[in-house]
């Protein structure tokens, strides 16, 4: 004689927080001995029962993100990842906590940086930023940049050499000079000066670089003053910016022969002023040492579809010397070494492997979740996302 016997509830499926405890029907002989299920009537077999059970408090644990791309496109660099202390506080609430909770359990914190090595850094083309367009407003001009080989010039592939010059359009013709009110007079006739600010602005009032306005029409920033009738004398304007962005260059200023008649400004021929006392209209100038940022080409996107990252080398050169320390190049102008990239999603019919998108949580007993068919529950569907994935066709 054989009959079905309901087993006692199994131990809780989770060692911490909430889990599942299940009971199953066993086929036994009249003396209580367990036998094969085939000896009992399958139509009368009781359905298994499941109950939620509570374990002890979950311990803290270290969780790590995936490693970043190598910090260098060639040679030796570094990869980084985020390391955080996590703890399951309740079903569905898995949260990051203070690192001290993991450290108090003597858990060794995983490294957040490691050395990575790519292909050897062979010869590469490196380029500086493009210069400003040489054209006036509304006209065509040329902009340029420096192109150099990271090694001897003969080692770089000349067929892939980046362009160092390209055509460009000048700025829009809505730039105009604007002036402030005159300041007070600084002294007597011949020495007194009134100064005002002269600025280049767009039609919207945005302050622009002076190179974007036509210097031939720049208003005077310095006027003579001191008497209603002031004889002609030399009046020098403010120095313009150095014509070199780095290294040695020349700065210019306008020098006019001017005076006042009945309190009104009047410009006179230069012969009306003493030529021996004419102020200099040019002067040598020196900007910071000629150091420029150079970049290599962007690497391929780190993902074949969706959002990824591209990286490139960014180096500072002072002449032909690579600068590895100090701030020879302007840090405010340093080009980006990383940028996001977006590639087209996989076409219809081509699926991304689910294994790449999720992993079962180690705190969930996913084998039991599958056995008792709890994947319909949102918490276990998330905790066991890999095990609960639908079968592939």
UniProtKB/TrEMBL annotation:
GO terms for cellular component: extracellular matrix; extracellular region. Coiled coil: none annotated. It comes from the Eukaryota. It holds the Pfam family TSP1_ADAMTS. InterPro entries: ADAMTS_ADAMTS-like, PLAC, TSP1_rpt, TSP1_rpt_sf. It is found in: Secreted. Keywords: Repeat, Secreted, Signal. Residues 354-392 form the PLAC domain. PANTHER family: ADAMTS A DISINTEGRIN AND METALLOPROTEASE WITH THROMBOSPONDIN MOTIFS PROTEASE, ADAMTS-LIKE PROTEIN 2. This is PLAC domain-containing protein. The lineage of its organism: Eukaryota, Metazoa, Chordata, Craniata, Vertebrata.
């Amino acid at each position: 004689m054989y009959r079905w016997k309901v087993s006692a509830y199994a131990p809780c499926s989770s060692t911490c927080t909430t889990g599942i405890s299940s009971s199953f029907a066993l086929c036994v002989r009249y003396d209580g001995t367990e036998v094969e299920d085939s000896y009992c009537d399958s139509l009368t077999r009781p359905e298994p029962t499941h109950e939620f059970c509570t374990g002890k408090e979950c311990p803290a644990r270290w969780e790590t993100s995936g490693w970043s791309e190598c910090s260098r496109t060639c040679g030796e660099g570094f990869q980084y990842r985020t390391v955080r202390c996590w703890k399951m506080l309740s079903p569905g609430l898995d949260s990051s906590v203070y690192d001290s909770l993991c450290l108090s359990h003597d858990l060794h914190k995983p490294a957040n940086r490691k050395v990575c090595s790519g292909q050897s850094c062979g010869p590469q083309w490196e380029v500086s930023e493009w210069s400003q367009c040489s054209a006036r407003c509304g006209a065509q001009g040329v902009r340029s940049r420096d192109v150099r080989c990271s090694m001897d010039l003969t080692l770089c592939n000349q067929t892939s050499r980046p362009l160092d010059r390209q055509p460009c359009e000048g700025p829009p013709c809505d730039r105009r000079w604007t002036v402030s009110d005159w300041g007070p007079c600084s002294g007597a006739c011949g020495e007194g000066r009134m100064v005002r600010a002269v600025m280049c602005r767009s039609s919207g009032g945005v302050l622009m670089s002076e190179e974007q306005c036509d210097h031939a029409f720049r208003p005077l920033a310095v006027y003579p003053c001191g008497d209603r009738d002031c004889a002609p004398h030399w009046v020098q304007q403010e120095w313009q910016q150095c014509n070199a962005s780095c290294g040695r260059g020349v700065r210019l200023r306008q020098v006019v022969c001017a005076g006042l008649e009945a309190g009104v400004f009047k410009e006179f021929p230069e012969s009306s002023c003493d030529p021996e006392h004419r102020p200099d209209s040019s002067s040598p100038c020196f900007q910071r040492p000629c150091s420029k940022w150079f970049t290599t080409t962007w690497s391929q996107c780190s993902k074949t579809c969706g959002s990824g990252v591209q990286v490139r080398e960014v180096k500072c050169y002072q002449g032909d010397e690579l600068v590895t320390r100090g701030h020879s190049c302007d840090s405010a102008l340093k080009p980006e070494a990383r940028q996001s990239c977006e590639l087209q999603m996989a076409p219809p019919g081509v699926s991304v492997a689910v294994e790449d998108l999720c992993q079962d949580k180690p705190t969930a007993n996913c084998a039991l979740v599958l056995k008792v068919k709890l994947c319909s529950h949102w918490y276990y569907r998330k905790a066991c996302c890999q095990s609960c994935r639908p079968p592939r066709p």
